[in-house]
Design goal:
Porin; two-stranded antiparallel ribbon; mainly beta; 14-stranded antiparallel beta barrel; 345 residues; 50% strand
């Protein structure tokens, strides 16, 4: 146990003090429904396989604004091992980022040996590798050229004359703690990169390089039933984000849930947006929608941001241990013990 505590401590310190050289990830308003994107440590911690597709249209009406598409899925493959994957494309004006990520997780209980099943606590450690292509297409840019020194961009040595791409490989670390109602996670996304710098939008002779910056995240949430029958619940959550080149930014979210079936929520992203959320989780199907209204200086130049999440929950054929049960509160309402199929050896 002492060695395990030392390992966890070293893991946490490494997450926060390792110098990062990586690409910052897009913004997601519905991070609480697809938290694998924020913290890969989530992979394999559920008793089902969540497949999610997210499309985000940011700053509607703003020319060249970001548009992001992601597809994620993860699963437990044994009592202790989980695997996850992510496909994504993110386009902002002439810049496009496309790639994939694979995750390997190891999870284990951290509660006492004789702890009741519904009081058990778990920890998941994750190592992820991301394959990323960064591209710049000057045929899709006009603003940069118009504001170059000669008005055409011809003497701007940073902007290429043709399409340029750069391929990089990133590695991420994450830690995720979870119980029946609580989850807390920290992640250092893309702490290693090969190569360290992008070859795109760089002018080495003039000393200009397109350096990569990493992203550190702290995620926490708690599911709190507010009536004895567990029909209604509230779930506040918090996301803190930090990069080497930016100050800490917080996202605070609260949603009201009815019978784990439907919900309404409200979020605030510091200095950026107020977010309205709604969704439904019916049977194997999942649907979520959010609308961001800007509160920053660009609020007068766009019509808000739209984000849509759709998904399907596949069943895991063979029961695995050390998981969070999807229907744990529904079973409680029906006076069924959700842990009855498990026995200690």
């Amino acid at each position: 146990m002492k060695n395990l505590k030392k390992l966890i401590l070293v893991f946490i310190l490494f997450l926060f003090f390792q110098e990062s050289k990586s690409q910052q990830l897009p913004i997601f308003s519905q991070y609480m429904f697809n938290d694998y994107v924020i913290n890969p440590g989530v992979a394999g911690t559920l008793d089902y396989i969540p497949l999610r597709m997210t499309y985000r249209n940011q700053w509607t009406g703003f020319s060249g604004a970001p548009k992001t598409l992601t597809i994620t899925g993860h699963s437990a493959v044994s009592d202790h091992v989980g695997l996850g994957s992510l496909l994504y494309t993110d386009v902002t004006g002439p810049i496009s980022i496309t790639g994939a990520m694979l995750s390997y997780n190891f999870r284990f209980p951290v509660s006492g040996k004789y702890c009741a099943w519904d009081k058990r606590k778990f920890l998941s450690l994750s190592l992820s590798t991301r394959f990323n292509q960064f591209a710049f297409d000057p045929t899709n840019e006009t603003w940069y050229s118009m504001h170059a020194p000669d008005g055409s961009g011809a003497i701007d040595q940073v902007i290429p004359n043709g399409i340029e791409t750069s391929f990089n490989i990133y590695h991420s670390l994450a830690l995720y703690f979870y119980s029946e109602r609580l989850y807390v996670g920290i992640s250092a996304l893309d702490v290693f990169a090969t190569p360290n710098d992008l070859d795109v939008l760089s002018y080495y002779e003039g000393g200009y390089t397109n350096n990569l910056i990493g992203q550190y995240n702290f995620l926490a949430g708690y599911y709190y039933p507010i009536d004895e029958q567990m029909n209604w619940a509230i779930e506040p959550s918090l996301l803190l984000k930090k990069t080497k080149m930016s100050d800490m930014q917080y996202h605070f979210n609260t949603r009201v849930i009815y019978q784990d079936l439907m919900w309404l929520g409200l979020s605030y992203r510091q200095f950026d947006a107020l977010v309205f959320l709604l969704g439904i989780d019916y049977g194997q199907y999942f649907f979520g929608y959010s609308y961001d209204t800007s509160v920053s200086e660009i609020s007068g130049y766009n019509s808000g941001s739209h984000e849509l999440v759709i998904g399907y929950n596949f069943s895991i054929r063979n029961k695995k241990d050390n998981l969070r049960f999807r229907k744990r509160f529904e079973d409680r309402r029906r006076l069924i013990n959700p842990f009855k199929e498990f026995r200690r050896n």
